[in-house]
Request: fold
Amino acid sequence: MERVSKTSTMSRIGLIALLLVLWLSGCATGPRYDTEGIDLSLSPRSVIEVGTFPAGQRILWGGAIIEVRNLHQSSEIELMAFPLDQQQRPQTHKAAQGRFLAHWPAYLEAMDYAPGRLLTVTGTLIDITTGPIGAATYHYPNVQIEQLHLWPAQASPTRPRLHIGIGVTLGN
Reply:
């Protein structure tokens, strides 16, 4: 009888350990960025309004994709910037921080990087270009991307981050 209880106890411990690992993997967050040398107070709007452009400054910005343009040997992504949360995910429910152009040294599939998708980038400020938005002229900070993260399309920033329970969820 004692042998059965030891086996039963070991099975319970194993089951608890497995459930703990699965629960912790559900708490995984987005990518981690090296923020050394990055002025987190900069936004595309503040860079334009400063008066002196901080060329060479490293940034960590994110936003909603407006358009992807594939060029001869690179891709240019136009984004509407939003403040980032603790996981560096753009918070689209907050006030926009201006537009910027992000440059990636390779082809990006426009279907994957579709308008409205959320993207976070680290990179270096290159310069400012002027372009039209409708009949208006707009000044875009240009960023050479070092690292990018395309956020999953179905994820919602307003969903709770903690889920407890076992069950089945059905949805559309």
